[in-house]
Write a structure and sequence with these properties.
The protein has 166 residues and is α/β, with parallel strands linked by helices. It is built from six helices and five strands, in the order E-H-E-H-E-H-E-H-E-H-H.
Length: 166
């Protein structure tokens, strides 16, 4: 059975969570989306995904959460061998400069998206980061061409000599 590559969305405001998930729905057929409203719930979901020998390719995480904040969760993921390769995006309207700098320096933050975001910008960032992830970690990137950056995947396949559909 092929491993699944998940997108994890962590946001405590239900209407914002729904909006993010709705905006990235085009990826869901290839990248199952899991949702959490606290860092603790996100940890449980992460553990469950990893225990099933699947991966988290991307996390879209709010900063202000009940309990541990989003930056803490992202730094923790960066420090874990199992999730350090996950692409990390902070989506927030409230992170101060100090927290943002910490996320960049300690969590290998790939993007910072300010609320409110533009749907096209979010989709573009998700597509770019998942394409990066697939090209680095997926032995058969061809199956993702129709939803990710097909041109980059085709170039990668041509230059790496890994043209196969098995």
């Amino acid at each position: 059975m092929e491993k699944k590559i998940y997108i994890l969305v962590v946001e405590d405001e239900p209407e914002v969570l729904d909006s993010i998930v709705r905006d990235i729905t085009e990826f869901e057929a290839f990248f199952p989306v899991e949702m959490a409203d606290t860092a603790e719930e996100a940890r449980e979901i992460i553990r469950s995904i990893l225990d099933e020998e699947n991966e988290i390719g991307l996390i879209l995480c709010d900063h202000v959460l009940p309990g541990d904040n989003g930056v803490e969760l992202l730094v923790e993921m960066q420090n874990s061998e199992e999730t350090h390769h996950t692409r990390k995006v902070l989506i927030t309207g409230q992170a101060g400069l100090q927290e943002t700098v910490r996320a960049v320096n300690e969590a290998d933050l790939k993007h910072y998206i300010a609320k409110p975001w533009k749907k096209g910008e979010l989709i573009s960032i998700v597509r770019e980061l998942l394409t990066d992830y697939v090209l680095e970690f997926e032995p058969q990137p061809l199956r993702f061409m129709q939803v990710l950056d097909g041109e980059r995947i085709a170039d990668h396949i041509r230059t790496s000599g890994k043209l196969t559909d098995s």
